[in-house]
Design a protein that fits this description.
7 helices; about 70% helix
Length: about 170
């Protein structure tokens, strides 16, 4: 039972998709944590190599699905660490200055105020350049649900940004 051909395929899929996966992770967790999460994504992919789809595009989406799971695990860990830090600080109130605004901050802020499911759909379509069908697959929802959520997200973003044009 040799796994060499599938190992070679996974290596090639990882080489091809790594720049996109790293960018996906960087946009969500920043430049410091993204390489570690990419490494975790690769480890999980190797553990699940038998599940690697034959079709190159499906294999790429499979890797994005693994990366998303890695992100969700990371976010849970971050929430736990922040909660612990809050308890340690004794819930001291601090008056932190707002970071300086930069180009696109209003759009990023509007996206971050969306329901998390809507925000992730918008990010996948516009930042990762996935189609709605690909984003729906990655999120594990029907295409029609993705279309409805995307339309709702666009309406909410238009209202938040005070514009009446397509997002």
């Amino acid at each position: 039972m040799s796994r060499r051909p599938i190992d070679g395929r996974l290596t090639q899929v990882l080489v091809d998709a790594s720049p996109d996966l790293l960018a996906y992770l960087q946009r969500r967790v920043g430049f410091d944590d993204a390489p570690d999460l990419l490494g975790e994504t690769m480890v999980v992919a190797w553990r699940r190599v038998a599940d690697l789809p034959d079709n190159p595009e499906r294999a790429r989406m499979w890797l994005f699905g693994i990366a998303r799971g890695t992100l969700l695990n990371h976010a849970r860990g971050e929430r736990r660490r922040w909660a612990l830090a809050d308890r340690i600080r004794g819930h001291l109130a601090t008056d932190a200055a707002a970071p300086p605004s930069d180009e696109g901050a209003d759009v990023r802020d509007a996206i971050s105020r969306l329901d998390p499911d809507l925000a992730e759909l918008v990010r996948l379509v516009h930042w990762e350049r996935l189609t709605l069908v690909q984003a729906a697959e990655l999120l594990g929802i029907p295409d029609s649900t993705a279309r409805g959520r995307y339309a709702r997200a666009k309406e909410e973003l238009r209202a938040a940004l005070g514009i009446g044009v397509e997002v």
